[in-house]
């Protein structure tokens, strides 16, 4: 790329203060496919603002999409209208909005308007990897053309914006080797972008350094060179317990390729944000020979909104003034380096750089020297002490070099440490903490967990592992306490620095405390007590302050696992099971997340009533509003004034106090009828799953995410660690030790034959890229809800979700029509198709629907025309891209039904052709599977026996079958051309087929199944019949016009489909999605009632099948 430098030169003349009115409108621009709309919606929700898409605004004003307007009136007229509408939009909506969709055609007029808007508003260029954008353009576009388009667009977006966000495509998220649902990737994107926006508006309160002259604990910054991130294979070390991360930029090395540097900086900043929770400081090495490059890099960094940037006091004053006038909410750290040890020459004017930094508006200063002797270190400490006496900003001071390592350890603010794998001569966090301990500058702390039934607790091991990883000398032990007096003795023991309170003492301990945090006071329960001792009036005074980290753990668990379809909104209801201290924390956590409606169920009704009464009084005192209702018994119906719960939290202990007996509580399934599922959180953990957890596991197939107590243990443990130590927790260490210990203790269940995918920290059932089986979830084919030229796909998805479907087969016709609609053209390009696929995935994700496959890839195998065969191989490459954009791993291939004269009747050739597809799919990451379906009218492969023979010949693990009750029963049992509607010996032939299928077909190669019936023809389907088509197989005409959903006897359904389904599910042991693939003349009926009616009929059939086969 060759335009970036000139772009930067133009931008340098523009001064952005980057300080905005809190309500200033946020504007997102960028290439098509960068994710602007998704990010815009996320920002509008987080900021409580109106979301505006320019395309929708344009359509509202002109009754045409931009593409349609250009087609009708030409580009010149469009640009005139675009300019007018852009000016109107930016003028009328300058506050309280999030706007996306501007800049699509990169017009000069719009560029001027956007640059002017950026003077007082944040305009964010949403970047995406060029390889990702290339997917949207399509393989048909040459590299040269793509580069030209990219250069023009990139120049336009850079000059119009004052910020950049790199929308990183997350690799497959894994949770301790478990594949996580795709919805969690969107959660990470949400977290990163919301934090980014908050930093823009100055709403983030994180600071990379303390403003205290003598901070209570030493802080450390993990040094990460820019080029190291390119080769790092383990980003876990970024979350190692350091207080900040410093990204190091070497101007002489990293600044050589300025055309690449901006994208590299944006990408690596996104990586640091993704893999760490601490502030990011960017440290630019100063070179007097490269002043222009230095300023250019500073400009790049301000656009990325790090928490802090450094700037050398040796650079020209105008650059320093420019930086501090345009930094916005970013902290600036002045740097000063001298080639001699700090403090050796007491006569030097050490205060001058501090005064200059203060005068120019820096927030902190770092002064470094070069050490040649170990003796220099104490002088450096004294040097810093002299400076801080008069400085109004924090001072960082240390010597560099091997001899200066002690001064690094003794410097209390943002001392530089390196990953253990990087440099043996530098200081690691472990080295620094051990050095402080050896110098008695870090006090050894003793923490104790106290309560009853602690036999299976993993907390001590988790905390001790974290202390050890960070070099802290602390200890953490567990003590059983039979009485409250024993806790009092622990709180009064002078050797302890903190006590973790477990059941049943979380409320009873309150009178023993001197202070209680506001959250713990509201909850009226404490699980963390910090004990501080200080000298006051000549005597030692002890303060015991109580906190509650249980609610933090509950809040984080719910937030991380709540799907977009169940996002908290008005009317969201929570079911609380239990009435103790943890129940109080759970209600408070959900209240803080925005929930206002709660139902409480507890075996002891009196305690449930007391809990409800407590929060009734609390809401009255605090001026808030909560609705709480106690459910008296599991026989009661769910309260009609509340929606079905989408959050259920069991706050009961796993075992009876004082015994090994499990707490046996279950709830009514009538309380679990949310059509979109929800989150079930079990706060208890132990070697065995609780009966309630066992009850909830099957509901994972209905959209429920089941999270066990280990997840809560880690989340609240992170908060407790940070309260006790006042240091960031090494999260990956804590998770890993819980994972390892839980395996040893038998808490993890990973049997290959399990009907659910049980994660160590949560149970998540997801079809996408998953190898473990699920139980059963209902799906429907998109065209079964109405043909694409009559019924909008988004409306059909709405109706499928409302009915309760959890999976969707995408019919290619629907995808193509969606691309036509979005692009405004009747001939959508590859780019349009891929964009439509991504759009469809977004709609489905919003509804909590999984796309289970893309179909049908027609007329491929066994062709005599090998030129056409080659063409279809190329077409499959597009389909593989479409599958990825849809976030599905399955493509369905119906067995070929072209006329026999066009096909080769040789199964080896058929298998060889299909093997080519399987190998193409296997080369993708993750692999794409192919579900081969024998149609009852296919030319050569028209039975399951023949199809399975082909699958065996293909011999690839990603090539299997789709079994359809209609196509199986409609071939060996039903016949539309006979007066009886049946074949000869129908019952015997069906029985024979089903017995063979159960015995021979490997269920692991059954990728999904379809269940539908068909009408019995009143007269044989031959010439003269309304459905007859000359040259078309009768069974094909029958299928296209007269399928019904199962159990629709009143519509003429008559095939023995239940027997086929029973053989597949109960005989073969199939588990997974069960799809309703209806083809019928009613699909072509007009009216919005068609998708509604078809969805209703389909889910009714599913419910009947589920009941008759007793499916979970």
Automatic annotation (TrEMBL):
What are the recorded Gene Ontology BP terms? chorismate biosynthetic process; shikimate metabolic process
Xylose isomerase-like TIM barrel domain: residues covered: 797-1090
UniProt domain Shikimate dehydrogenase substrate binding N-terminal: residue ranges: 449-529
Residue ranges annotated for the Quinate/shikimate 5-dehydrogenase/glutamyl-tRNA reductase domain, each copy included = 571-617
Which protein are we looking at? AP endonuclease, family 2, putative
Entries under InterPro entries matching the protein:
Aldolase_TIM (IPR013785), Aminoacid_DH-like_N_sf (IPR046346), DHquinase_I (IPR001381), NAD(P)-bd_dom_sf (IPR036291), P-loop_NTPase (IPR027417), SDH_C (IPR041121), Shikimate/glucono_kinase (IPR031322), Shikimate_DH-bd_N (IPR013708)
Q: For the SDH C-terminal domain, which residue ranges apply? A: 709-738
- Keywords in alphabetical order, please: Endonuclease, Hydrolase, Nuclease
The UniProt similarity line reads: In the N-terminal section; belongs to the shikimate kinase family. In the 2nd section; belongs to the type-I 3-dehydroquinase family.
GO MF, one example: endonuclease activity
């Amino acid at each position: 790329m060759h335009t970036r430098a000139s772009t930067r030169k133009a931008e340098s003349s523009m001064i952005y203060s980057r300080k905005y009115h809190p309500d200033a409108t946020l504007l997102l621009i960028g290439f098509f496919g960068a994710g602007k709309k998704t990010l815009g919606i996320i920002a509008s929700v987080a900021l409580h603002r109106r979301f505006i898409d320019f395309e929708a605004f344009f359509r509202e004003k002109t009754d045409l999409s931009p593409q349609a307007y250009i087609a009708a009136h030409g580009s010149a007229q469009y640009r005139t209208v675009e300019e007018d509408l852009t000016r109107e939009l930016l003028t009328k909506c300058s506050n309280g909005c999030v706007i996306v969709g501007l800049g699509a055609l990169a017009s000069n007029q719009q560029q001027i308007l956007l640059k002017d808007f950026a003077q007082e508003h944040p305009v964010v260029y949403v970047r995406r990897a060029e390889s990702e954008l290339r997917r949207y353009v399509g393989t048909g576009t040459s590299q040269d053309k793509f580069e030209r388009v990219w250069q023009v667009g990139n120049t336009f977006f850079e000059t119009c914006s004052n910020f950049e966000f790199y929308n990183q495509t997350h690799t497959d998220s894994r949770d301790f080797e478990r594949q996580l649902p795709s919805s969690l990737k969107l959660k990470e994107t949400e977290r990163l972008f919301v934090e980014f926006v908050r930093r823009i508006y100055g709403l983030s309160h994180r600071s990379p350094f303390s403003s205290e002259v003598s901070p209570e604990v030493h802080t450390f910054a993990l040094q990460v060179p820019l080029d190291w991130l390119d080769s790092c294979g383990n980003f876990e070390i970024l979350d190692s317990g350091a207080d900040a991360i410093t990204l190091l930029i070497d101007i002489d090395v990293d600044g050589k390729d300025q055309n690449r540097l901006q994208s590299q900086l944006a990408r690596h900043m996104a990586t640091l944000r993704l893999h760490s929770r601490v502030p990011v400081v960017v440290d630019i090495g100063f070179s007097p020979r490269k002043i222009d490059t230095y300023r250019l890099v500073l400009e790049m960094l301000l656009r990325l909104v790090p928490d802090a940037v450094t700037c050398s006091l040796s650079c020209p004053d105008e650059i320093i003034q420019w930086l501090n006038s345009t930094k916005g909410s970013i902290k600036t750290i002045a740097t000063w380096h001298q080639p001699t040890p700090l403090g050796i020459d007491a006569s030097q004017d050490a205060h001058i750089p501090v005064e200059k930094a203060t005068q120019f508006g820096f927030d902190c200063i770092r002064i470094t020297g070069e050490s040649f002797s170990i003796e220099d270190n104490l002088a450096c400490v004294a040097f810093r002490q002299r400076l801080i006496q008069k400085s109004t900003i924090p001072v960082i001071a240390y010597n560099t070099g091997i001899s200066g390592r002690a001064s690094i350890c003794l410097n209390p603010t943002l001392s530089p440490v390196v990953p253990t794998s990087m440099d043996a001569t530098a200081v690691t966090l472990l080295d620094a903490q051990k050095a402080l301990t050896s110098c008695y500058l870090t006090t050894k702390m003793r923490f104790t967990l106290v309560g009853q039934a602690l036999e299976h607790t993993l907390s001590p091991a988790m905390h001790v592992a974290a202390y050890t990883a960070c070099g802290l000398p602390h200890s953490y032990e567990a003590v059983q306490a039979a009485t409250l007096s024993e806790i009092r003795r622990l709180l009064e023991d002078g050797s302890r620095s903190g006590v973790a309170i477990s059941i049943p003492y979380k409320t009873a301990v309150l009178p023993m405390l001197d202070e209680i945090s506001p959250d713990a006071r509201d909850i009226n329960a404490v699980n963390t007590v910090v004990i501080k001792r200080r000298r006051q009036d000549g005597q030692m005074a002890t303060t015991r302050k109580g906190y509650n980290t249980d609610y933090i753990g509950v809040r984080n668990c719910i937030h991380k696992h709540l799907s977009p379809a169940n996002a908290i909104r008005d009317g969201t209801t929570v079911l609380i099971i239990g009435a103790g201290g943890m129940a109080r924390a759970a209600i408070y956590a959900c209240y803080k997340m925005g929930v206002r409606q709660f139902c409480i169920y507890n075996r002891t009704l009196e305690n449930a009533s007391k809990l409800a009464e407590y929060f009734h009084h609390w809401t009255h005192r605090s001026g808030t509003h909560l609705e709480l209702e106690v459910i008296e018994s599991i026989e009661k119906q769910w309260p009609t004034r509340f929606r079905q719960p989408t959050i259920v939290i069991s706050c009961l202990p796993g075992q009876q106090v004082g015994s090994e007996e499990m707490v046996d509580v279950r709830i009514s399934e009538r309380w679990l009828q949310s059509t979109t599922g929800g989150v079930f959180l079990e706060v208890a953990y132990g070697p065995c799953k609780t009966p309630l957890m066992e009850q909830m596991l099957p509901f994972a197939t209905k959209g429920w995410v089941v999270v066990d107590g280990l997840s809560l243990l880690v989340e609240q443990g992170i908060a407790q660690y940070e309260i006790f130590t006042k240091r960031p927790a090494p999260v990956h260490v804590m998770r890993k030790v819980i994972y390892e210990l839980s395996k040893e203790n038998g808490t993890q269940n990973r049997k290959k034959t399990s009907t659910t995918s049980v994660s160590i920290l949560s149970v998540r059932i997801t079809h996408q890229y998953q190898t473990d089986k699920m139980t059963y979830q209902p799906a429907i084919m998109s065209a079964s809800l109405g043909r694409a030229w009559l019924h909008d796909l988004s409306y059909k998805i709405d109706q499928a979700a409302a009915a309760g479907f959890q999976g969707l087969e995408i019919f290619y016709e629907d995808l193509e029509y969606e691309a036509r609609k979005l692009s405004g053209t009747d001939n959508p390009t590859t780019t349009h198709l891929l964009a439509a696929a991504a759009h469809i995935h977004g709609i489905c994700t919003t509804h909590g629907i999984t796309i289970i496959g893309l179909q049908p890839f027609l007329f491929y195998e066994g062709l005599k025309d090998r030129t056409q065969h080659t063409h279809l191989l190329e077409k499959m490459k597009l389909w593989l891209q479409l599958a990825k954009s849809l976030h599905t791993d399955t493509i369905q291939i119906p067995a070929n039904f072209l006329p026999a004269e066009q096909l080769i009747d040789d199964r080896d050739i058929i298998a060889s052709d299909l093997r080519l597809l399987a190998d193409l799919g296997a080369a993708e990451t993750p692999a794409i599977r192919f579900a081969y379906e024998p149609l009852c009218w296919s030319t050569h492969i028209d039975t399951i026996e023949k199809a399975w023979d082909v699958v065996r010949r293909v011999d690839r693990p990603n090539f299997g079958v789709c079994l359809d009750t209609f196509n199986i029963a409609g071939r060996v049992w039903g016949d539309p051309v006979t007066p009886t509607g049946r074949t000869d010996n129908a019952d015997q032939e069906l029985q024979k087929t089903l017995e063979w299928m159960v015995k021979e077909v490997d269920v692991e190669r059954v990728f999904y199944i379809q269940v539908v019936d068909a009408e019995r023809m009143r007269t044989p389907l031959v010439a003269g019949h309304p459905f007859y088509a000359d040259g078309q197989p009768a069974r094909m005409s029958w299928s296209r016009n007269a399928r019904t959903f199962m159990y629709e006897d009143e519509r003429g359904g008559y095939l023995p489909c239940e027997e086929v389904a029973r053989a597949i599910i109960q005989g073969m042991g199939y588990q997974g999605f069960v799809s309703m693939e209806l083809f019928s003349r009613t699909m072509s009926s007009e009216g919005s009632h068609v998708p509604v009616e078809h969805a209703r009929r389909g889910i009714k059939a599913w419910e009947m099948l589920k009941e008759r086969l007793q499916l979970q």
